[in-house]
Amino acid sequence: MLATDHLDHTDVHDAHEAAGRPRPPGLAGTPEDKAMLRAAADLTRDITRARPEIYWPDMLVSAVLGYGALALAIRTAISGGSGLVVLALGVFAALALYRALLFIHELTHIHRDALPGFRFVWNLLVGIPVLMPSFMYEGVHSLHHSRIRYGTVEDPEYLPLALMKPWSLPVFTLTALLLPVGLLLRSAVLVPLGVIVPPLRTLVWERASSLSINPSFRRRKPEGAFARMVFWQELGATLWAWTVLGWSATHGWLPLEIAIGVIALAALLNQVRTLVAHLWENEGDQMTVTGQYLDSVNVPPPGVWGGIWAPVGLRYHALHHLLPSMPYHSLGECHRRLRAHLGMGSTYEKANYPGLFPLLARLVRSTMGARA
């Protein structure tokens, strides 16, 4: 979906004025910057193709490096090697697997025919071994990009974190450490039990089958070809979980413990990235696309760390909300073209930030102000 798709509809701001209602408060009341939306589409039409020569090596190398470092960490720990070496290898494995895992985001946006075999291979090498198959994001993340759902109670990926209590931030962040254990419990126990206990199957699907942060979100039952894909991915994840647990029970639990630690670290890093993906200032109102953009965050170069903690194009998260189907490898060029065309004083520039820590500090200050 390109930015011009939004221009064919009356925006939220126009609808409020037509009905004689006042604008919603904050960013929800932002009118559309149609010049920015049109420029985003017109200036980037030639770089919208997903390039397999970039996707495949990037994903495969990230996975191989991640698993290789994890294997070395396990081998070093079993042989009684240095704890610092194990830690360094574990951190490297977490960073590499984090990058490989984030291709799940690309799978939700690229056309199903754009990269033949990519979804299958990603699930085989990354999604199922980490117990996070692509169905857990596909069909969910698209709701976050809906013009009428973003920032509302129907958005699975939105919470008004900036308006919540200060203690909510560490709780939100640290719960990510429980993710690998939760995924193991889900695939090894809850999904198989759900086959013979239909109410449990319904509960697991609605509440524990999507990578969402909104506790009010309930996932709808899958249908058609998507339901068949879910079945095979669930079967693969369950068989893998049983294999891992069976092997660990007979050969020792240390490898699994190290693997859980590595995935937990990757999940923690992703949760920190999520904290600064948006400003989280909307209280449930529908927003214009421009409002969504301004509630989102770009952390462009010259900073180099953004490509590590927000890889696979996610350092351009605000730009991604303007051009959701733009492949990750084109977002840097999109950013350069739009900044040059629109200028430093434009609406586009207002979503660009210098780095992770200033954004975290802003979020903390917002929650401190929300205590009253």
UniProtKB/TrEMBL annotation:
Pfam family, one: FA_desaturase
Lineage: Bacteria, Pseudomonadati, Pseudomonadota, Alphaproteobacteria, Sphingomonadales
Chain spans, region Disordered: 1-31
Keyword Transmembrane helix included in the entry's annotation: yes
Composition bias type Basic and acidic residues, residue spans: 1-20
InterPro entries: FA_desaturase_dom
TM region(s), chain numbering: 59-78, 84-104, 116-137, 171-204, 251-269
Source species: Novosphingobium pituita
Protein name (database record): Fatty acid desaturase
Assigned keywords, A-Z: Membrane, Transmembrane, Transmembrane helix
Domain Fatty acid desaturase: from-to ranges: 85-344
